Amino acid sequence: MPWPRLRAVILGALAIVLVASIWPLNLFEVRARSPLASVASAFGPAPSYPGYRWSRDGREVIAFELDTIAGPSHCHWETATMLFIGWPPGTVSTSSAGARTYIRDPQGVYAPAYRDRLDLHATLPADATPTGYRLGPIELYLSPTDQDEAIYVVAPSGAERWPRVDPLRLCA
User: 18 vs 27, which has greater pLDDT?
Assistant: First the structure.
């Protein structure tokens, strides 16, 4: 094998070993700079259809159980992220009657009231517990005292409180 090719193979192998050792140890905070390190980096801009694939207890869930997608562009809601979750958590819902909707709408395109109820720098209530849903390092939490009002989206860099949409408003 010619020296330049051998050198490239050795350097490639060293790079793989380096990345493999840095990632689990999070040396230099490599994972903290990923696109999912903050709620804002994951959901601003809002994810277009089909959205992200969440997992619960280590298994990927289908969109009828949990989905986060941008609002429809024909309504001009595409900057808002809509979170649809089967209710209670863990339920696969086949209709809006069996699900809840929460929204991240910092621009108030869905409705100014939801922008005003959004907390981009939330503190988890003492009674908040994880739902088991994960998107990489991002987790969903519910608080029994306000689960009818909001859901908490928690990343390594902080938490956001997304208000519940009730009743669900649709556009044509």
Answer: 18
